[in-house]
Amino acid sequence: MPVRRFGGHRSLVKRSKTPKLSYGFSKMSVSRSGYRVFSANSSTACTELAKKITERLGVELGKSVVYQEANAETRVDVKESVRGQDIFIIQTIPRDVNTAIMELLIMAYALKTSCAKNIIGVIPYFPYSKQCKMRKRGSIVCKLLATMLAKAGLTHIITMDLHQKEIQGFFSFPVDNLRASPFLIQYIQEEIPDYRNAIIVAKSPSAAKRAQSYAERLRLGLAVLHGTAPSLESNMSDELYVPPPTRSSVGHTGLELPLMMAKEKPPITVVGDVGGRIAIIVDDIIDDVEEFVAAAEILKERGAYKIFIMATHGLLSAEAPRLIEESAIDEVVVTNTVPHEVQKLQCPKIKTVDVSMVLAEAIRRIHNGESMAYLFRNIAVDD
User: What pTM did the predictor assign?
Assistant: First the structure.
């Protein structure tokens, strides 16, 4: 037995055969915490995407109750412990968008007060994304919503095809903006016969970059629609009528500034040859379909024999299913980021592409601390 000296005294010390770092608590301290996946929707139809994601992940959907009280207030009850865990809240946006936002905010705050480690919102379609620019005497509502989500306790967001990529700058935490273009391109290649004879169409010059990305990856031509259909000119809300300035003889009239000419869009025209081809219009959101219906009529007049519309988010509000059914559009293809089962029953032309695979993979990679670059391989910035 070895002998050690401490301050001139002899002492016997027995060597331990167990290393210092092999205590039971050391293994517990380095192990990663678990994770749970919850659905923040009170509607049964809206939980379908959450079920598909959890099935792909091989986990059970978290136990919670989201319901509306008699006075229309939203109440959330979490039925299991979430302390120290990564929590993913899946929230699709039904027609009642404001109720869906309150459900998400209240559930995030409930999980925050229950000591969840990280709260990640999985919001495939981010609401109010069209209100991301300043309008006359208006406000940037998308920025307000981003601030509300941060205050409620969210620490990360997974979304898909934001209306403007600059929206990511509104948030004070990380945002992963996934892309649906690989799934839509795969649909074109597998489900559209003779797609090599197709041409990609941008319904406006602002959508030309997205359409160009599709055209380059599919090795197809590109056409751009420019102008406004006559029936839609009266519905333009972006331009406010400003009366011409009049000279007043009383008081100071100020500086003589050059008179700004009002913008006037020409009748809709097609830049590119679509004759004898399949026209595929690509966009990120299809909500009010009047512009798409007018574009399909123009393309038919120019010789296109089939019209397809590819969009990530199929909001399809108001009379959209009926207008699509009665139009020259042959098929509308959207993803399941937004529930639209009722619209599909009203219009057989509406088809759905499942994107739960990429959402599930994003959840797995974020929880395991893996790189997200794999999900963006071969995807252009303009997609």
Answer: 0.83
